[in-house]
C-alpha cells in the first residue's frame, strides 16, 4: 500500500526530526533543554480556563456540533478586537471565519484555491505549513528568498514577470517565524498591495505573532493598508498570544469573496471549532489584556537574559523585536556545517534542542532557531553548557 504522491513530495517534517533527536537524548538519560518547538510553556490565563469550565458544566447545548464558520458571538468579538487593535473595520457576518488553529486554516486555504500545478509565492525560510500546505494541495511553491541583508523582507522586483503572472497566492508572515523580522513601516505592505493588484494574486498574511512585540514596537496589520482587503486575508492564532496552543483556535479575516471558498471547503472537511472553546476565545479577546502584557514581559526578560549570555560566550545573537524566538547564524566554529548536523551535535553533546534552519527552507540552512519556551533558570543552564561546548 503506497501513500498519495503529494505526501511523498513533502520534505521531512522539522519537528518530527527534532523529536527523534530528543527521544535519543532522553534514552541516554540526558537532561534535555528543549528550545526547538515554539510550544508555549506558560499556562493559559485563568479567566479563559474558567470560562471553558463554566461552559462545559452549565451549558450542555454547547456540546453539540458547532457552526463551521464560527458562532456569531465569536465572529463579533474578533471584529471588535480588530477594530480596537488595528482600527480595521470587519463585517463579522462574512469577513471573519473561525479556524481550528491558523495552521489548519493556511493548509485549507491552499486546498480551497490551488489546482494541481498552480503556483504559490512562498517566502524562504518560512513557517513549514506555508510551503507544505501548497504541496499537499498539489500546487508548486516558488521560493521568495528572505535575506538577512534585506531585513528578511522579500524583494518583489526580483520575482520574474512570468512567475508573477502564474502565481495565484502569496504568503507573508510578519512578525516573521523563523527570522523574527518585523515590518517597521507600511511601505512594504503598500508595495505588496500594488504587486498583488497588478498580477491578481491573493495575499495571505500570517499575523500569529502580532501581540508578542518588545521595546515599544507595535506590529501592524496588513489590512491597515488601503486596498489590502480587496486582495487579501489575514490569519491569527490564540496559541501564542494567550498560551492556547493545544486548544486549536484561530481565525482568518479579510475579503469576503476570498473567504467563501475556504468556508465552503471547511464545511465539507470539519465541523468547526468546539463551541465551548470559541466562547473561551471570546473571553480572551474581550477580557483584560493584562495577561498578554505579562506574557510579553516574560518573553522580553528571557530574551534579554539569553541574548546577553550568548554574546558573553562569543555567540553574537541578534536581539529580536518580536516573536518568541531567537534566529541566529551558526557559531563561527560551525559555519561549515549544515544546520541539521549542528543541531544533532548540539543535542548529543549538551542536551539542548534547537530547530535547524533547513527545516524552514534552503535559505535557512546557515541558521538555527531557538524558542524562549522554558523556565527562566534553564537559560542559565543552557549558557553554561554552550560555553563548555563552544570551548571544545
Give me some keywords for this one.
392 residues; alpha/beta; Aspartate Aminotransferase, domain 1; Aspartate Aminotransferase, domain 2; 2 domains; 7-stranded mixed β-sheet; 3-stranded antiparallel β-sheet; 15 helices; 43% helix; globular
Outline the structure in words.
- With 392 residues, the chain is an alpha/beta fold.
- It has 15 helices and 12 strands.
- The N and C termini lie far apart (48 Å).
- It is 43% helix and 14% strand.
- Helix 8 links the parallel strand 5 and strand 6.
- The protein folds into 2 domains: 142 residues, Aspartate Aminotransferase, domain 1 (Alpha-Beta Complex); 241 residues, 3-Layer(aba) Sandwich (Aspartate Aminotransferase, domain 2), CATH 3.40.640.
- Helix 3 packs antiparallel against helix 12 and helix 5 crosses helix 11.
> CATH superfamily membership of the largest domain, which one?
Type I PLP-dependent aspartate aminotransferase-like (Major domain)
- Rg for CA atoms: 21 Å
Strand order, main sheet: write it out.
2-8-7-6-5-3-4
Number of domains: 2
| Range of helix content | 40-55%
Q: What is the CATH topology descriptor of the largest domain?
A: Aspartate Aminotransferase, domain 2
Architecture of the largest domain in CATH? 3-Layer(aba) Sandwich
End-to-end distance, in Å? 48 Å
SSE order? HHEHHEHEHEHEHEHEHEHHHEHEEEH
Low-confidence stretches: none
Tally of DSSP β-strands:
12
CATH class of the largest domain: Alpha Beta
Quote the beta fraction: 5-15%
Amino acid at each position: 500500500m503506497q501513500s498519495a504522491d503529494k505526501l511523498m513530495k513533502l520534505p521531512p517534517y522539522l519537528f518530527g526530526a527534532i523529536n527523534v533527536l530528543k527521544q535519543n537524548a532522553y534514552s541516554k538519560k540526558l537532561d534535555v533543554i528543549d528550545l526547538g518547538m515554539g510550544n508555549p510553556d506558560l499556562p493559559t490565563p485563568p479567566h479563559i480556563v474558567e470560562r471553558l469550565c463554566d461552559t462545559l458544566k452549565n451549558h450542555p447545548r454547547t456540546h453539540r456540533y458547532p457552526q463551521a464558520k464560527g458562532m456569531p458571538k465569536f465572529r463579533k468579538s474578533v471584529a471588535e478586537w480588530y477594530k480596537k487593535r488595528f482600527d480595521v473595520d470587519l463585517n463579522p457576518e462574512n469577513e471573519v471565519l473561525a479556524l481550528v488553529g491558523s495552521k489548519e486554516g493556511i493548509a485549507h486555504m491552499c486546498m480551497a484555491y490551488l489546482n494541481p500545478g498552480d503556483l504559490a509565492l512562498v517566502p524562504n525560510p518560512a513557517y513549514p505549513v506555508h510551503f507544505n500546505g501548497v504541496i499537499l494541495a498539489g500546487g508548486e511553491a516558488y521560493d521568495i528568498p528572505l535575506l538577512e541583508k534585506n531585513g528578511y523582507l522579500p524583494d518583489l522586483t526580483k520575482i520574474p514577470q512570468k512567475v508573477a503572472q502564474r502565481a495565484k497566492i502569496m504568503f507573508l508572515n510578519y512578525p516573521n517565524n523563523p527570522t523574527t523580522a518585523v515590518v517597521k513601516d507600511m511601505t512594504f505592505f503598500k508595495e505588496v498591495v500594488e504587486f498583488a493588484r497588478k498580477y491578481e494574486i491573493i495575499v495571505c498574511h500570517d499575523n500569529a505573532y502580532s501581540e508578542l512585540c518588545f521595546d515599544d514596537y507595535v506590529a501592524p496589520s496588513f489590512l491597515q493598508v488601503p486596498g489590502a482587503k480587496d486582495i487579501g486575508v489575514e490569519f491569527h492564532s490564540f496559541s501564542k498570544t494567550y498560551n492556547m496552543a493545544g486548544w486549536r483556535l484561530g481565525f482568518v479575516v479579510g475579503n469576503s469573496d476570498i473567504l467563501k471558498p475556504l468556508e465552503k471547503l471547511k464545511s465539507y472537511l470539519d465541523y468547526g471549532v468546539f463551541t465551548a472553546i470559541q466562547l473561551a476565545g471570546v473571553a480572551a479577546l474581550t477580557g483584560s489584556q493584562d495577561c498578554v502584557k505579562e506574557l510579553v514581559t516574560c518573553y522580553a526578560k528571557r530574551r534579554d537574559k539569553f541574548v546577553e549570555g550568548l554574546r558573553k560566550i562569543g555567540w553574537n545573537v541578534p536581539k529580536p523585536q518580536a516573536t518568541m524566538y531567537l534566529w541566529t547564524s551558526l557559531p563561527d566554529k560551525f559555519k561549515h556545517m549544515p544546520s541539521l548536523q549542528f543541531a544533532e551535535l548540539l543535542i548529543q553533546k549538551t542536551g539542548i534542542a534547537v530547530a535547524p534552519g533547513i527545516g524552514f527552507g534552503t535559505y535557512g540552512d546557515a541558521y538555527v532557531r531557538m524558542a524562549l519556551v522554558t523556565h527562566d533558570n534553564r537559560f542559565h543552564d543552557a549558557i553554561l553548557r554552550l560555553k563548555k561546548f563552544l570551548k571544545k
